[in-house]
């Protein structure tokens, strides 16, 4: 995920095409592996604070809507051909999204020429009446939804049960219901539900270890974990760790043995019970052929870290170790559906744990590994530690991914896809949907509009090697409004090992005649370079970003 529309759109395209895998224009693979649902459409930014999402009306102007809230959905339906879209619980400017014709039929179908179906979030169609009170009864909600472009009610049937009455009363045309059925059944046909099972190759995909836990898939999961790792600090080139110089490593944090945590939201209680490599598992595997001892202490009893009871054992382990790795961050008890965070600080006494470890490890390396989904204000932690790695929620092979980075089996090249603010006080009110800065009200939000000083800037990330840029060329010199600008630059690996570099192009429009982002990402490319190697990278700036 990302706060940047371009990056989020690229991620959306890859995610949707990866899930669906089918191409109806290809006679050999016309069937979808699965139908991808892009949600929640749209401007869905509040879960429970300051009001419940079922009652929230997002006040969004046209500029913010098209600049920020719609691009990823356009990538889903126009570029990736996602099979369906889920309208959200909230309203936009007083109109529930599931009953907004300008949003569903207007943008999705008329402007973007999309032929998929729209499904409501759980009971959101009925909530046009129940919570938003936009309608006086269910029949009105049924009419408003189907005429706006709804196709399927998720959850109950309180709204669609009244559709026959709406047809009878002449407020809904039978053709509207026919259109909904056509859209719904078209996707079912593309999934092969009405074809002989032997004709649909995806029917042979099962949950057996031959597929789900195949060696190929485990390697891919490990690669994904590796490539997502971000390195934010590495004083004195503490990382990668040299096994030959170590006798004892302290691993501190309640997350060490928790595998499901690494899978992110919705994993707890429903995730797989096999095939997951925890941080502890990954570290132990990396040390298996050595004599290095791994000391494991939780430090905090849980992620909330309301007690310092475990600090003594943690600092004792750290004092006796050559290097200490402390795990910090969030979990699904802190960030999840129904759990908006009122602040972005590390929970409870996590910062105090780092301070205690710093005192105990004076003169010895202290490394922080972040495990989380949403952005964080890491406070003084960045100053206290010698190195910081951001693992995010790294997935089933996350433990191997973390160990690979710490011990140099993989050279990290991730770039932070969000802004790391210094404190919650730098953020606007949670319900504010306008991203632009406004004096006395907001410093702006996301790197494109933020006028304050972040702790870690969007796009930042270190490597175990170094790169140099040269021979920058921009063509043409005189650009027409609808013309693409082409950029080439030569990148050279000037360090001591192979590694990836993420080449990024940003633009500013200081003399724009209308409000515009302060700066924005317009293209990027990730390349791999051997030690001493060079490569010319070609990037482009689409007219949308400079006109």
Description:
This protein has 547 residues and is of the alpha/beta class. 25% of the residues lie in helices and 18% in strands. It has helices at 5-20, 62-69, 71-79, 102-111, 127-130, 138-148, 163-168, 174-190, 215-228, 279-286, 311-320, 350-360, 381-384, 398-406, and strands at 37-41, 57-58, 84-87, 91-92, 95-96, 117-120, 230-234, 248-252, 293-297, 323-329, 366-371, 387-390, 467-475, 485-493, 499-507, 520-529, 534-541. It has a six-stranded mixed β-sheet with strand order 7-12-11-10-8-9, with helices on both faces. The protein has a three-stranded parallel β-sheet with strand order 1-3-6. A three-stranded mixed β-sheet has the order 2-4-5, with no helix packed on it. Helix 10 (279-286) links the parallel strand 8 and strand 9. The two termini are 27 Å apart.
Brief summary of the model shown:
The protein contains 14 helices and 17 strands. The protein is an alpha/beta fold and 547 residues long.
Q: Residue ranges: pLDDT <50 for 5 or more in a row?
A: none
Q: How much helicity do the residues have?
A: 25-40%
Instruction: Tell me the structural class.
Output: alpha/beta
Beta-strand proportion: 15-25%
Largest sheet: 6 strands, mixed
Strand order, biggest sheet?
A: 7-12-11-10-8-9
Distance between the termini: 27 Å
Provide the residue-averaged pLDDT.
95
From the alpha carbons, calculate the radius of gyration and give it in angstroms. 26 Å
Counting DSSP H or I runs of 4 or more residues, the number of helices is: 14
Name the overall outline.
Answer: globular
Number of strands: 17
């Amino acid at each position: 995920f990302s706060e940047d529309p371009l990056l989020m759109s690229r991620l959306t395209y890859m995610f949707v095409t990866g899930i669906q895998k089918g191409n109806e224009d290809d006679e050999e693979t016309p069937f979808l592996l699965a139908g991808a649902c892009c949600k929640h459409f749209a401007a869905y930014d509040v879960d429970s604070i300051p009001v419940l999402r079922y009652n929230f009306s997002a006040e969004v102007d046209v500029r913010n809507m098209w600049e920020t809230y719609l691009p990823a959905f356009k990538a889903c339906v126009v570029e990736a051909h996602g099979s369906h879209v889920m309208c959200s619980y909230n309203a936009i400017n007083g109109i529930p999204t599931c009953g907004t014709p300008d949003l569903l039929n207007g943008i999705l179908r008329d402007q973007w020429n999309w032929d998929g179906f729209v499904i409501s979030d759980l009971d959101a169609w009925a909530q046009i009446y129940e919570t938003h009170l936009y309608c006086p009864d269910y029949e009105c909600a049924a009419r408003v939804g189907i005429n706006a472009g709804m196709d399927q009610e998720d959850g109950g049937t309180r709204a669609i049960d009244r559709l026959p009455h709406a047809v009878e009363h002449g407020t809904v045309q039978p053709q509207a219901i026919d259109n909904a059925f056509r859209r719904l059944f078209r996707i079912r046909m593309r999934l092969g539900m009405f074809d002989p099972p032997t004709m649909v190759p995806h029917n042979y995909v099962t949950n057996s270890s031959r597929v789900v836990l195949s060696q190929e898939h485990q390697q891919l999961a490990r690669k994904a974990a590796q490539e997502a790792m971000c390195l934010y600090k590495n004083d004195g080139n503490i990382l990668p760790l040299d096994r030959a110089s170590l006798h004892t490593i302290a691993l501190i944090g309640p997350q060490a043995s928790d595998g499901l945590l690494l899978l992110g939201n919705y994993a707890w209680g429903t995730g797989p019970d096999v095939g997951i490599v925890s941080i502890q598992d990954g570290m132990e595997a990396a040390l298996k052929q050595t004599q290095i001892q791994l000391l494991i202490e939780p430090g905090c009893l849980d992620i909330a870290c309301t007690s310092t009871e475990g600090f003594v054992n943690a600092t004792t382990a750290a004092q006796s170790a050559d290097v200490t790795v402390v795990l910090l961050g969030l979990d699904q008890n802190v960030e999840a559906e129904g759990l908006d965070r009122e602040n972005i600080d590390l929970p409870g006494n996590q910062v105090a744990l780092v301070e205690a470890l710093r005192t105990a490890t004076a003169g010895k390396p202290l490394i922080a590994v972040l495990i989380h989904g949403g952005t964080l204000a890491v406070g003084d932690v960045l100053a206290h530690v010698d190195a910081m790695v951001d693992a995010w929620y790294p997935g089933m092979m996350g433990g191997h991914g973390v160990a690979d980075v710490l011990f140099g089996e993989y050279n990290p090249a991730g770039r932070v896809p969000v802004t790391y603010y210094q404190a919650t006080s730098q953020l606007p009110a949670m319900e504010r949907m306008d991203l632009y800065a406004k004096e006395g009200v907001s410093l702006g939000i996301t790197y494109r509009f933020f006028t304050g000083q972040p702790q870690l800037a969007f796009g930042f990330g270190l490597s175990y090697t170094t790169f140099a840029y040269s021979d920058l060329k921009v063509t043409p010199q005189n650009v027409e409004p609808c013309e693409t600008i082409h950029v080439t630059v030569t990148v050279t690996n000037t360090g001591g090992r192979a590694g990836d570099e993420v080449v990024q192009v940003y633009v500013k429009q200081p003399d724009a005649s209308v409000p515009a982002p302060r700066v924005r990402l317009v293209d990027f490319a990730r390349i791999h370079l051997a030690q001493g190697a060079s490569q010319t990278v070609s990037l482009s700036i689409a007219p949308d970003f400079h006109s």
